[in-house]
Amino acid sequence: MNLYSKLCELEARGKPLRIGVIGAGKFAAMYLAQVQKTPGVHLAGIADLSPANARANLERVGWKPDSYGAPSLDKALKERRTHVSDDWQGLVAHPAIEIVIEATGNPLAAVAHALAAFRNGKHVIMVTVEADAFCGPLLAKKAREAAVVYSLAYGDQPAIICDLVDWARAAGFPVVAAGRGHKWLPHYAQSTPETVWQYYGLTPEQARVGGLNAKMFNSFLDGSKPAIECTAVCNATGLTPAPEGLSYPPASIDALPLTMRPEAEGGCLHHKGQVEVVSSLERDGQAIPHDIRFGVWVVFEGESDYIRRCFTEYGVHTDPTGRYACMYKRWHLIGLEAGISVASVSLRTEPTGCATGFRADAVATAKRDLRAGELLDGEGGYTVVGRLMPAADSLRLGALPLGLAHQVKLLNSVGAGEPVLWSNVACDEGSEAVRLRREMEAAFAAPKQRAA
Question: For residue 211, is it within any domain?
């Protein structure tokens, strides 16, 4: 409740938080649009593979050229300007930088960036949730060992879901389920970059004019991104997936307390304490009025008659029994809200979502029959889709995480709908990201598995 006042104090003292951003794409551009309006924060440096594109984004969101024309990071720090370069190593190594925002969208690169930041004593806000999905629990452990904070990025749905779950629990409510909304029909799971626009309701020409990336948009549509984000939520909150993963039940906001209760009570949940994604479409494709497609929600339980009477007295929408209620945010603002993470991490040394265990996994699953010799093309592509799975099942199967299913060759065939296993692919075992994932799997394996 007092982050803003604390930021104002830093501004008044001339001691702003010093931030570095790696990756200046869509999320970062939204943060850039806000950071100059935020007191007590100095975005000292931006590192991007294409500094020209980073400068173009700065201009697009309204920055004046002299504010990002600093010729060096030292000069930027002295003059309170922003240095733009392709030197991420120099950015994370500079002693004045306090927080690194990792926003590349490249999970392998994100792991390297986070580990380097930890070694240099920097806090990390991880926008690239794909990296958190396949090794977030170990990144969190390494951050603690380095005495720094590792955090999901507020504004993205996982961190806002974590916030709602924390609100419910801190108020004393048992959390029955939590999750996000999505536009979903079952056949979207086989969507490719060639079919994504017709499902979205756009023409290829409209997408081209808008500069929209078909593979990235398809990763949302086909269920890969929801699986990745729900993995992060489970690992941060202790919620767990159903054995078969996400089922995408259709529901309006008002129907959430009715839908998100146990199957034995007329709902769709396999168990209490579950993560789930709600569809904004009925199974026949009809749009649901008052949907939560772009938002997040938590369903919680009133455990006594008195609490349930309070729900009624204050107009809380519940299921017919009055036992289950919900709170929600119908929209999220992505990078426009990332400053909440910056302030929380710096001023409170508290993450806005951070893995506390390995409870769920986003597993690469074949979209179609795949043949030996094919190259997997990662999330949103033509070969694999992400499936949410309990971590214990993923470990038992030896499943390949979706974040590592890019540009790896299949050693043998995998049938449509089947998980891709480590044994099915030729991975670069020397890769830092692969080694980190292997280390995490060993750390979280069941005792009998470790003994074997």
Answer: no
Contact 399, 419 (CB under 8 A): yes
Percent of the chain topping pLDDT 90: 93
| Bridge partners (DSSP) listed for residue 152 | 126
Per-residue pLDDT averaged across 234-263, rounded?
Answer: 98
Of 24, 40, 16, give the one whose Cα is nearest residue 97: 16
Residue of 105, 9, 3, 5 lying closest to 48 (CA atoms): 105
For residue 147, the domain's CATH number is 3.40.50.720
Six-digit token string for 337: 């809200």
The total number of structural domains that make up the chain: 3
Beta-carbon count within 10 A of 94 CB: 20
Domain boundaries, position 151? 3-155+335-348
Same domain, 170 and 298: yes
pLDDT bin (cut points 50, 70, 90) of residue 200 is confident
**pLDDT confidence of 449, banded at 50, 70, 90?**
very low
Reduce the DSSP state of residue 99 to 3 states and report it.
strand
Angle at the Cα of 298 from the Cα atoms of 326 and 252, rounded to 5 degrees: 60
Report the distance separating Cα 399 and Cα 344, nearest Å.
Answer: 35
Q: How far apart are CA 164 and CA 170, in angstroms?
A: 10
Q: Which 3 state secondary structure label does DSSP give 258?
A: helix
Residue whose C-alpha is closest to residue 287's, from 316, 250, 321:
250
The SS3 call for residue 206 is helix
- 3-state percent helix, strand, coil for the chain, nearest multiple of 5: 40, 20, 35
Residue with token string 């159903």: 242
Q: Tens digits of per-residue pLDDT, 158-168?
A: 999 999 999 99
Tens-digit pLDDT profile for residues 391-415: 999 999 999 999 999 999 999 999 9
Measured distance CA(348)–CA(176) in Å, rounded: 28
The count of residues in the chain is 452
Evaluate whether residue 279 is within a structural domain. Answer: yes
Query: What pLDDT sits at residue 450?
Result: 43
| Best CA proximity match to 221, nearest among 213, 231, 210 | 213
CATH at 399:
3.90.1210.10
pLDDT at residue 447, rounded to an integer = 54
Contacts of 171 by beta carbon, 8 Å cutoff, 6+ apart:
none
Residue 144's identity, in one-letter code, is: R
**Cα torsion 311, 332, 138, 360: sign:** positive
- The pLDDT of residue 1 is above 80: no
Q: Please give the Cα distance from 295 to 17 (Å, whole number).
A: 30
